[in-house]
Amino acid sequence: MNILIVGAGEIWEEGLCKLYSKSDYVICVDGGSKVFKKFNLSADLYLGDFDSTTTENHLYMLNHSKKVLEFPAEKNKTDLEIALDIAVERKCDKINILGATGSRLDHTLSNINLLSRYFSEKVQITLYSEHHEIFYAECDVDIFSNKQYFSVFPISKEGAVVSMSGCKYPLNNQIISFASSIGVSNEFIDKKVHIEVYRGGILIFLSNEEK
């Protein structure tokens, strides 16, 4: 099962149409309602505290959602985290996230960090923006992508130990320290990049933009 979660951030509209058509279950999170109304889309679930939507878009979603869940504005989880809780409970194979990045860098960082919290070898979770694909790994991973660049970042102060092949700057049992820039802006030279993670966990960013 593929689940699509659409948040209130910046939306890659072309990607939305592609991912929506391949999804078995669709969750609209709060202000994501604007793009559902724009493209006349419906959702299996519409949730949030509804503080980032408009009255017009909210009414549209109430009439174009199979289920609606409203939460208080003051809570210990963001709306996106609640959506991920629900998605994981459905025992899906893949979760795609759109609308999780934007001008609020604090929200963007929080949403990216959620990828590590919900990591499982059984579920592939990918966060998409117009120029990036972002996911988290603690094990070996093969990357097949039409992107040109990729970067890797350890997320804990213990860092990570990785090997990488199929790229311009290969690594062999390399220790990547937390906050180090050694993993930034590598390039594909083969159709497949193979990454082995021996210790720790890494965020992987795929990008077509050089800067």
Summarize this, please?
The chain is an alpha/beta fold.
Q: Class of the largest domain in CATH?
A: Alpha Beta
The radius of gyration over CA amounts to 18 Å
User: What order do the helices and strands follow?
Assistant: EHEHEHEHEHEEEEEEEEE
Which architecture name of the largest domain does CATH use? 3-Layer(aba) Sandwich
Low-confidence stretches: none
Q: Assign the CATH superfamily of the largest domain.
A: Thiamin pyrophosphokinase, catalytic domain
Q: Could you name the CATH topology of the largest domain? A: Rossmann fold
Number of domains: 2
The average pLDDT value, as a whole number, equals 93
The biggest beta sheet is recorded as: 10 strands, mixed
Structural class by secondary-structure content: alpha/beta
The overall strand count is: 14
What proportion of the residues is helical, as a percent range?
A: 10-25%
Query: So how many helices?
Result: 5
**Strands in their spatial order, largest beta sheet:** 4-3-2-1-5-6-7-14-9-12
Q: What's the end-to-end separation, in Å? A: 35 Å
Assign an overall shape. Answer: elongated
Portion of residues in beta strands equals 25-35%
SSE layout and pairing:
Blueprint: E1 2-6, H1 13-21, E2 25-29, H2 33-38, E3 45-48, H3 55-63, E4 68-70, H4 79-89, E5 94-98, H5 105-117, E6 124-128, E7 132-137, E8 141-144, E9 149-154, E10 160-165, E11 171-176, E12 186-187, E13 192-199, E14 202-207
Parallel strand pairs: 1-2, 1-5, 2-3, 3-4, 5-6
Antiparallel strand pairs: 6-7, 7-14, 8-13, 9-12, 9-14, 10-11, 10-13
